[in-house]
Write a structure and sequence with these properties.
The complex is a heterodimer of chains A (166) and B (432). Chain A has helices spanning 4-18, 24-36, 55-66, 95-99, 101-108, 112-126, 132-142, 150-161; strands at 20-22, 46-48, 51-53, 70-75, 78-83. Chain A has 166 residues and is of the alpha+beta class. In chain A, a hairpin with a 2-residue loop joins β4 (70-75) and β5. By secondary structure, chain B is α+β, with helices and mostly antiparallel strands. Chain B folds into two domains: 5-205, Orthogonal Bundle (Hypothetical protein af1432), CATH 1.10.3210; 262-385, Growth Hormone, Chain: A (Up-down Bundle), CATH 1.20.1250. Helix content of chain B is 50%, strand content 10%. The A-B interface holds A 1, 4-5, 7, 24, 44, 46-50, 53, 55-56, 58-60, 62-63, 65-67, 72, 79, 123-124, 127, 131, 133-138, 140-142, 145 and B 85, 87, 90-93, 127-128, 132, 134, 169, 173-175, 177, 179, 186, 228-230, 276, 354-355, 357, 382-385, 389, 391, 394-397, 400-403.
Chain lengths: 166, 432
């Protein structure tokens, strides 16, 4: 059973690995995708308009900001998260994060909308959708505002699933 | 005079009624064994150790949600025909035209079934078994071995027979479109919250959940959410703001006084420890035949896809085992933990801090040493362990887009509740 402290440390290790994550949406989708890649993030996600979302995760990020382990700064309509260098040592190494560093860095370089689509693909697959044409059709229904990026998102999804090569 | 309705008395709404013809499916589902099981699962777990009358069950809550979502639906500006985007076999989009009454039935069925997958002592149970009650709900609803699938595919209407099951599952897992339909069951202003706040407060005997549900419903409409460019639920700011503020304040009070009550939390953590100890003993290879009066729980722990085993599990089953383990378990720790539950021996709170693990402090270390063999009775609790997490209230910054409550100020202007209500702004920045 994963404790809250372990969850918080894992999130800390994640941010430490990439230094900066721009946007709550990106943070949420990265964790969901990593969870689907087998990393032991225990947060529960539900589907909302912008894709899989965990209120639990958001509260944990807020707690890390309150503890001043994360720095949170508004940038336009988004929040930017960075590690507080003075408290970096309070974050223990996390083996899963260390052994998936390439994937994590790859994800953080993607825009939040692509991650929104990829995480939605994972969610739909977990809900029983399997055929690509049906998945694409459902994605068009759920994400009309991102319809131009849907094909590209399948390429990204396949790349992530294939063990990912840059 | 012929009675066209099945009528059920309810302390919150006075009467809940279902049309025997138009809502026959609802009545049929209520009568299934898998739905009747919800009578044996308490809505608030061990809250009755703090509030003795909070013994209501998930059955009455599910009926309540079904009723409330119907009332909410009837108050909304829904057109006579609603377009639901669907897919043909090749994945091409098709538009289905659904009558308002048909959609109403689907939504009420979703409300009725939203908790059907819950297990006993849900939160603790899910942590030990890695089961997700929402996934269990889907399995129960769509199982060919059970009864609900058959009811949902025999609704007497070709369209509903084909799609109702799928739509109910999508409403419950959030992927239904239009999204405002799903928001009636799961959002910051949904039928689930409305019912459990009113019901929990009433059954606990507290007066904290006081909001004008009828006036709230009068002032909600479906409209275009500007920032998301989609249809969603909007509240008339001028007339409805006080009702929605009262709703949020009720949530705050219930959270502080009931859901996060230290005595209740203490017992819930002990139940968690019982499950943890049980799992340790099973892994250790202890004689499992001695541990269980009936194999359903063991079967489910070993295989959490075992639906038949899962449906045997309810509060009565578990409490019977707690009593059995208290008196008969060779494992002293398991026996002592069960004694705490059966004989209601409350834990004592040592310290309450925001954002600090007692365990990390010197005091925590010394305390742990002194406890010796009784270390199992030491625990820390935090917001993440609580079954009811109210992220709208607990969040420190502006609410997440996923959790916005939108108010309509005029024809075009919309604001999130926290932006214009000083009461809500103040609540959200409190340390709960």
């Amino acid at each position: 059973m994963i404790t809250t402290s372990e969850n918080l440390n894992k999130l800390g290790a994640l941010l430490k690995a990439v230094s900066v994550i721009k946007g709550r949406t990106k943070f949420q989708k990265m964790v969901y995708i990593l969870q689907n890649k087998g990393l032991n993030f225990s947060e529960k996600f539900k589907y909302h308009y912008y894709g899989p979302y965990s209120s639990e995760l958001q509260l944990e990020v807020d707690e890390l900001v309150d503890r001043e382990i994360f720095k949170e700064n508004g940038e336009g309509y988004a929040f930017k998260y960075e590690i507080n260098n003075e408290l970096e040592e309070s974050i223990d190494m996390d083996d899963e994060i260390s052994s998936n560093i390439e994937l994590i860095k790859y994800l953080v370089d993607q825009d939040y909308q692509s991650l929104e689509l990829v995480s939605t693909i994972y969610y739909l697959k977990n809900s029983g959708y399997s055929k690509e044409n049906i998945l694409k059709g459902k994605l068009n229904i759920l994400k009309p505002h991102l319809s131009s990026k849907i094909s590209e998102s399948f390429s990204l999804f396949n790349k992530i699933e294939a063990g990912f090569q840059k | 005079m012929p009675n066209h309705s099945k009528v059920i008395r309810d302390p919150i709404y006075n009467l809940i009624s279902f049309d025997k013809e138009k809502e026959k499916a609802i009545i049929d589902i209520i009568n299934t064994p898998e739905f009747q099981r919800l009578r044996r699962i308490r809505q608030l777990g061990l809250s009755y150790y703090t509030y003795p009358t909070s013994v209501h069950d998930r059955f009455s809550h599910s009926l309540g949600v079904c009723h409330v979502v119907g009332e909410l639906f009837d108050n909304l500006n829904i057109p006579d025909k609603v377009i639901i985007p669907e897919l043909d076999r090749e994945g091409n989009n098709i538009s289905l035209e659904v009558e308002k009454d048909q959609l109403r039935l689907v939504v009420k069925l979703a409300g009725l079934l939203h908790d059907i997958g819950h297990g006993p002592f849900s939160h603790a149970f899910e942590r030990i078994t890695n089961v997700d009650h929402e996934k269990m709900s889907e399995k129960i609803i769509s199982s060919k071995e059970l009864n609900i699938l058959n009811i949902l595919t025999s609704l007497g209407n070709e369209l509903l027979n084909k799609y109702a099951l799928k739509w109910i599952i999508e409403i419950l897992n959030g992927t239904f479109n239009p999204i405002w339909v799903k928001e009636l069951i799961s959002s910051q202003l949904d039928a689930d919250r409305i019912d459990y706040l009113l019901r929990d407060a009433y059954m606990c005997g507290v007066n904290y959940a006081s909001f004008d549900i009828k006036w709230l419903f009068q002032n909600i409409e479906i409209g275009r959410i500007n920032s998301d460019d989609r249809d969603g639920l909007l509240i008339n700011a001028k007339k409805g703001i006080h009702a929605v503020e009262a709703f949020i304040v009720s949530r705050y009070h219930m959270y502080e006084q009931v859901y996060f009550h230290k005595t209740t939390r203490g017992f819930e953590v002990i139940v968690q420890k019982i499950f943890d100890r049980l799992k340790e003993l099973i892994l250790k290879g202890d004689d499992v035949n001695e541990l269980f009066l009936d194999k359903s729980l063991l079967n489910f722990i070993e295989n959490n896809d075992n639906l038949e085993a899962y449906l045997q599990l309810d509060d009565f089953y578990l409490v019977t085992h707690f009593k059995y383990w208290k008196d008969n378990s060779k494992d002293e720790i398991l026996s002592k933990l069960c004694e705490v539950i059966i004989n209601r021996i409350p834990s004592k709170m040592i310290n309450e801090k925001a954002n600090e693990n007692l365990w990390d402090t010197e005091i925590g270390h010394k305390l742990f040493e002194q406890l010796g063999d009784n270390q199992v009775f030491y625990f820390e609790d935090n917001y993440n362990n609580v079954p009811y997490k109210d992220s709208y209230l607990l969040g420190k910054k502006s609410s997440e887009r996923a959790e916005h409550i939108w108010l309509k100020l005029g024809d075009k202007e919309q604001k999130e509740l926290g932006e214009i209500s000083p009461i809500i702004k103040s609540l959200r920045n409190n340390d709960l």
